[in-house]
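pasting input
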Amino acid sequence: MNRLLAILTAGLLGLAPAKTAGAAPKGTVYFFLGSLCPCTDAHKHSIMELMSLAPKKGVKLVAVFPNKGEAVELVEHFFKGIAFKLPYIIDSTNRLVKKFGAKKTPEVFLVNEKGKIVYSGPIDDSVENLGRVKNAFLKNAVLELASGRPVSLPRAEGSGCWIVRNK
Amino acid sequence: MKRFFLRAEALAMGLLFIALLFTLAGCGGSASGDDTKNMVYGSPESKMSMEPASGPLFEGAALSIAPEVKPVPNATEHRVRIDVSHSEVLVNDTIKFVGWVFGGTYPGPVLHVRQGDKVYFKMTNRSNETVGISPPSPHSIDFHAAMVNPKDKYREVIPGATIEFEWTANYAGVYMYHCGSPAILQHMIYGMVGMTIVEPKDGYPTKVDREYALFQSELYLARLKSGMYVTDMATAKKKEPLFVCFNGRPFRHVGEPLRAKAGERIRLYVLNAGPCGTSSFHVVGTLFDRVWMEGNPRNEMRGVATVMLPSSGAAVVEFVVPEKGIYTFVDHEFADVEAGAAGLIDASGDAVAAK
């Protein structure tokens, strides 16, 4: 039922990035998030900045909720608490977790138009939630991808909650 | 005549000068460097390991569960373990939520030590043991009673890891501890809060018949359509708690009153953990004849009806139970009473013999 709702929600929100009408996106960011994980808040300002920036650069943003037990009402509640909302997919079969090899939340994957992962890792290095971002990893990667340059830092390490897979 | 006035003026100025000297000496005495003479600043670097934990979620003779305050163990060094776990927190008979807690309890255990004592602290993040409840996540601990490098001692502990560090209780007082991992607000509304009591080196200046710990905190919860209750960052950011509790549950001490007898002197260690609101602590039917703000006897007030506590602020209050009766304690910000911030002190039994 939850899966059905998630698919329905995703459909209503115009997801399935590769199949969207209009100009083909230059890339897509998959944000692996957990509705019960407290670590996303530390990066909320970067995410909100990307929500303004990425569409102008032709990059789509999608949230993926991979944890066992995720449900639409939990995800909706999470977005209400964090005060922004992204189109999302509840990855109840863990298809996307397996495809990308996601281990934690939040963890992001920037995929280019050919489907190749060009950046994976944390959103930025703001682990303290004090507004001190020194390295905006994802934003830099999005800007490089959008301008046709190779992404200079394809992988970074960050902290987060473990993903609890469905078995 | 003019000379007389000059002499009187000179005398008055002289007296004023002497009074000023006494005042300065008095202030200087209490505010001078004396109280920092034996303090220990900092401590050896913390140790992080993947040493697994098992057994109870808290251990140590200096720990108790509020409202109980165990006496400080007869030692100057205390080995204390408080582990982190994810577990269900019961608000009342019908409401529960998935919480993250210290020592398996909400609020966490009360740590009771004496000024100058050393605490050897150990904490394992055991959130990896309950993956079915909530995804394992990083946690940390921040002792307001300690004076140490937060980057080292309060650093993130990943699931399954153990941190060990030591600190010295420099100041007498009542202090909060809490998780300091981001978003701190989220960790605190999930339940990662607790109390440290640092008794003055020579004890408090009064003798009491009973003492209790009162830990005030807010719960920000939302009811989902499924009927499940979850912590709610949206109302927390707006500072609109669903419940305000003493010792972890709304109106807990209405059902479980604190016991006392008429004529007894009672000491309450009151901490307002917040995380967002203030507390105006008051006991109906009596006045506090001693209030030590932050629990430090140097910060004394007398004849106080209501004590204002900021978020993470505390006080030790003492009063005499004037006669047989049931005394209500409240956060006198009455919106908080509506949310559960009230309890009872039952002194309806026989009075103590006159002293």
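fyi Residues 41 and 99 of chain B are 34 Å apart (CA to CA).
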